[in-house]
């Protein structure tokens, strides 16, 4: 398990998982600003097959504003990426960046409480998904 992500298995098909995750994040004030289909990009640019793999860029605008207000260059670390990918089984994999691990690399103490709040909201979003199970190390 990567030290900079929280990983889950969702007992739902891929497309349904995208909707479930997007809705759960919305309940906590996040919007999805970007949706990158890596499978399609690999097919188009490299002519290579890959499992379904999408990167959702999730943003909580008030907290992003606060973070940029105290650390102007932090925009290079935003938004919070959520990766949804096919697994070998019936479940869908989800990895979400650990905001505390990523945002605190700024070493700006004013960012820490914002990162902790973002992290709490992300954790609450995934805790609210009844068919999402955390993956242990």
Q: In a few lines, what is going on in this structure?
A:
By secondary structure, this protein is α+β, with helices and mostly antiparallel strands. The chain has helices at 14-27, 38-46, 61-70, 99-103, 112-127; strands at 5-10, 31-37, 53-59, 80-86, 92-97, 132-134. The chain is globular.
Q: What is the third-level CATH name, the topology? A: TATA-Binding Protein
Number of separate structural domains:
1
CATH superfamily: TT1751-like domain
According to CATH, what is the class? Alpha Beta
Relative strand content: 25-35%
Q: Report the order of strands and helices.
A: EHEHEHEEHHE
Q: Major beta sheet, specifics?
A: 6 strands, antiparallel
Query: Rough shape?
Result: globular
Radius of gyration: 15 Å
CATH architecture: 2-Layer Sandwich
What are the SSEs and their pairings?
Elements: E1 5-10, H1 14-27, E2 31-37, H2 38-46, E3 53-59, H3 61-70, E4 80-86, E5 92-97, H4 99-103, H5 112-127, E6 132-134
Antiparallel strand pairs: 1-5, 1-6, 2-3, 3-4, 4-5
């Amino acid at each position: 398990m990567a030290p900079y992500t929280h990983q889950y298995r969702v007992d739902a098909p891929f497309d349904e998982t995208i909707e479930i995750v997007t809705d759960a994040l919305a309940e906590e004030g996040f919007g999805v600003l970007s949706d990158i289909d890596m499978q399609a990009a690999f097919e188009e640019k490299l002519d290579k097959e890959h499992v379904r793999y999408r990167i959702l860029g999730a943003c909580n605008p008030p907290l992003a504003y606060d973070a940029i207000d105290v650390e102007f260059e932090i925009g290079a670390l935003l938004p919070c990426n959520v990766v949804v990918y096919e697994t070998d089984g019936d479940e869908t994999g989800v990895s979400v960046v650990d905001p505390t691990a990523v945002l605190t690399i700024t070493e700006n103490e004013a960012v820490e409480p914002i990162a902790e709040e973002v992290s709490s909201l992300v954790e609450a979003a995934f805790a609210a998904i009844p068919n999402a199970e955390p993956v242990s190390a």
